[in-house]
Amino acid sequence: MSPHPALPLVLLALGHASALFAQGDSARTTIGGYGEVHYTNDTGPGTPGEVNVERIVLYLGHSFSDRIAFRSELELEDARIEGGADGGELALEQAYLDYRVGESTFIRTGLVLIPVGIINETHEPPTFNGVARPLFERDLIPATWREVGIGVAGTASTSAGLTYRVYLVNGLTADGFSGKTGIRGGRQGGQKATFANPSITGRLEWARPGLRVGSSFWYGGSAAQDSVLGEGTFDAPVALASGDVRYDIGPWAFRGVLAWIGIADAGAINSRDSTDVAERLWGGYVEGAVNLLRFLAPASSQRVNLFGRYERYDTHAKVPPGTVRVTAYDRSLTTIGLGYKPLWNVVFKADYQIRRDAGDLDEGETVALGVGYQF
Questions:
Q1: The pLDDT of residue 87
Q2: What CATH number corresponds to the domain at position 363?
Q3: Is the predicted pLDDT of residue 130 greater than 60, yes or no?
Q4: Does pLDDT of 241 surpass 90?
Q5: Which of 24, 26, 49, 138 is positioned for an S-S bond with 41, CB 3.0–4.6 A?
Q6: Which phi and psi angles does 11 have, rounded to 5°?
Q7: Residue 4 covered by a domain
Q8: Domain count for the chain
Q9: CB of 246 within 8 A of CB of 211?
């Protein structure tokens, strides 16, 4: 969900809102949601396809007044949760209060989405190309990434198109880090999260018609008062910096993201946990798309997007002394596909993905089909 501060009703910016129930002059309740179903088939003789209800998300918001509003999302993944079975997750994706303290400035507190990259904040199926979200924004930027904290969101300059978000949140925990998945396992997600290592994260974004450029950061410790790693606020620090750009011109759309992560005490983490965490992780992707209907049926409001995306990321870019670098963690993915949007908030997708790595260990091709919606 985009937390653009110039729009008090965040979900209206993404078209989430489906119903507003008036409760006096300023109080109102908003409901909405999104979901997606995937079919995937890893190519190869005798390889069966798989169908999965990837997720369904329900949004509930309430504006108590012109100044105070509540926003929340509840997500169910993999259709169901069953005791003792693998798969399935029911989790809060976000739940926070906004308090407007100025014309375009908000104090935000609760479970918030970390403002890093493109997908983490804006990940409804009609907003991105491809059946699945880019794997770079899962394995390097650990989307969906949310933590508990407090911060400020606002517009620095309306005329210049500058917006910002800065949060103080609970930190990551190093005991969840690994060489293959980087910092992903260190997210706490609001579940009895330790605040031993508060972290700061933020984003500055510049927007012009057809163009949006953003930069994001994260910094904080991950020791969680472990005696081996240290009990200081910034012990076992994790630093992340990223930049992204989106550019639309006529029927064409382009986007790209770069990110770098540093884990200063990776060697100590590996000694404690017998794992293979890297000191440096990096990656990114570039993507281009064209709406074919702009040429075939210029008056149509529907879209048929042909796209291509190239991802490259390495969660073992640099390892500490004593840790063996795994070349298979240097991964590249090429995806081409089509997306048909009969309406702006409904999409039917198909794509073909080629996966390669420097170690030739986890390679393959996947055909995927999907349907997604938001309301």
A1: 78
A2: 2.40.160.10
A3: yes
A4: yes
A5: 49
A6: -70, -25
A7: no
A8: 1
A9: yes
